[in-house]
Design a protein that fits this description.
Bound molecules: flavin mononucleotide, manganese (II) ion
Shape: globular
CATH class of the largest domain: Mainly Beta
Number of strands: 23
Distance between the termini: 33 Å
Number of domains: 2
Helix content: 25-40%
Largest sheet: 9 strands, antiparallel
Low-confidence stretches: none
Length: 478
């Protein structure tokens, strides 16, 4: 059964042992962030803070999808579902978009705050990391904006920092869909862009919003696809936009053309505070609505594994696998490593012709999920791309330290990417490299060193005998 709201998802996390309730008072100023950091760095369960200093009416949930097992629960699958199952399920569900339905009202309308009554400091926005530029209100939410020229309504997740009682600084990257709408359309035409920020909707909403679906795809339809049931939407109070009816909190507003305030810096998903404080667009808030006994949600970016990494690796890997296969490439698997903070992907392939790794790399870097990816490892099909143990061994032993590392200059990368000097980072002027771990096609068969492993170095009979007798030898089950 798909979840009807965030609360049903939290209940399920309770059942699977993936949620810790904190009764003790915690401070929104750094303490919640520091707890979130430890959760993400050390793989602890998600958290529900029931007693937040200064905010007796609010609870705060964190670390919801900062582990693949909690993404699996959100997809209504067993928490120990395999990576291959998650990818296959994502692709299967994505084939059947389900349009949302509009409802008259919903729990997110239980409290309505308008105009001068709006005060963003009444919300428990955490000061997440020491060194951040301010309190981050939007770190686990969806941003709803509408294309002025079509029926396209985009859902994305873009960070937002409190600037003032009614102003939020927002990071709008040029390459993201919200950037295409704002810079290329609204601002270019000198028009304000309406925006709705929904915090704490049903879990597949945030999942769909953070997936790289193509432009003109309505993520609401894809959230419906992911849960196998339409999302219920209600109209906003002050803007002509629709938000999930069960959202815990909705913030409505407008992004005016040319208005900029200093936003950042922020400890980001790369594991660093890599982009500087800079003039960035601003949301002027016109209304806040929220549920009774509301639950605010936050993520805690930084060193892996964070919400960004665990949440996005499944869809990116699955989409890349499908795309490379559809282009006729002989690949056998793809995995974007969450532990790499989105910087490294591994593709496994058959090697029917010379330099197949080059063709794969050009296709990976040329497709949406690989657009800003800096590093790629190409391994042969006897290696499981999902197994870091196997990939590490293969990279270390099969990649020619000179000829096997191919460096590409003048490539597009993310402005947050820590590899590059600040001036280049600001402009997204990057570089990429791929590591070719396939044996060269011009090596004789005898020249290729034989892999010495249990699976390759013994006859089937010996393997079966050893497996059959394992317990009899006196070894424990693993
Ligand atoms: C916790 C979290 C925070 C994110 N913050 C940002 C952000 O501040 N700016 C950004 O461009 N992308 C951010 N992303 C990634 C985008 O949400 C993601 O690329 C998504 O596909 C964007 O939607 P779009 O494809 O419709 O533009 C974040 C993702 C997560 C999971
Ligand atoms: Mn989009």
């Amino acid at each position: 059964m798909p979840f009807d709201d965030l609360r049903a998802y939290l209940k399920k996390l309770d059942e699977t042992g993936d949620l810790v309730h904190v009764a003790q008072e915690v401070d929104w100023n750094e303490e919640m962030g520091a707890i979130g950091r430890r959760i993400n760095e050390q793989g602890f369960p998600a958290v529900l803070f029931n007693n937040v200093k200064d905010y007796p009416n609010w609870r705060v949930a964190g670390g919801l999808m900062s582990a693949i097992r909690r993404v699996a629960v959100g997809m209504d699958l067993p928490s120990d579902a395999s990576l291959q199952t998650l990818k296959a399920e994502f692709l299967k569900r994505a084939q059947n978009p389900i349009k949302p339905i509009i409802v008259k009202s919903g729990p997110c309308k239980e409290n309505i705050i308008l105009g001068d009554q709006v005060d963003l400091f009444s919300l428990p926005a955490p000061f997440i990391h020491a060194g951040d530029g301010g309190r981050y209100l939007c770190t686990w939410h969806i941003n709803v904006t509408k294309d002025p020229d079509s029926d396209w309504v985009n859902w994305g997740m873009y960070r937002g920092m409190i600037q003032d009682r009614n102003k939020i600084g927002i990071l709008i990257n040029l390459n993201q869909h919200i950037g295409q709408m704002y810079y290329q359309k609204y601002e270019a035409r000198n028009q304000p862009m309406e925006i709705a920020i929904a915090v704490g909707p049903e879990p597949m909403c945030t999942f769909a919003a953070t997936t790289f679906f193509p432009p003109y795809v309505n993520e609401a339809d894809m959230a419906g696809a992911m849960r196998g049931k339409p999302i219920e939407l209600v109209r906003c109070e002050t803007v002509d936009l629709y938000v999930p009816a069960t959202s815990e909190l909705v913030i409505e507003g407008k992004v005016y053309p040319k208005e900029r305030m200093e936003e950042g810096p922020f400890g980001e998903y790369t594991g660093y505070r890599a982009s500087d404080r800079a003039l960035r667009p601003v949301v002027t808030v016109t209304a806040i609505t929220h549920r009774n006994d509301p639950i605010f949600t936050m993520s805690c970016e930084g060193v892996p594994v964070t919400e960004t990494h665990a949440n996005m690796c499944i869809s990116k890997s699955a989409q890349m696998e499908r795309e490379l296969r559809s282009r006729g490439l002989p690949i056998t698997g793809v995995w974007f490593y969450p532990e790499s903070a989105g910087a490294l992907a591994v593709v496994a392939t058959r090697v029917p012709y010379a330099n197949v790794a080059a063709t794969i790399a050009h296709n990976v870097f040329g497709s949406p999920a690989g657009f800003v990816l800096p590093l790629l490892i190409v391994v042969p099909d006897d290696v499981d791309p999902h197994s870091w143990k196997e990939v590490m061994h293969t990279l270390s032993t099969r990649c020619h330290p000179y000829k096997g590392i191919i460096r590409l200059e003048h490539e597009t990368t993310n402005p947050l990417d820590p590899h590059f000097p600040l001036a280049e980072r600001r402009l997204g002027m990057g570089a990429k490299a791929y590591f070719d771990c396939t044996w060269p096609v011009n090596w004789d068969k005898e020249e290729i060193p034989a892999l010495t492993s249990f699976a390759t170095a013994y006859s089937k009979e010996t393997q079966e005998k050893v497996l059959k007798n394992w317990a009899a030898y006196g070894f424990p089950e693993k």
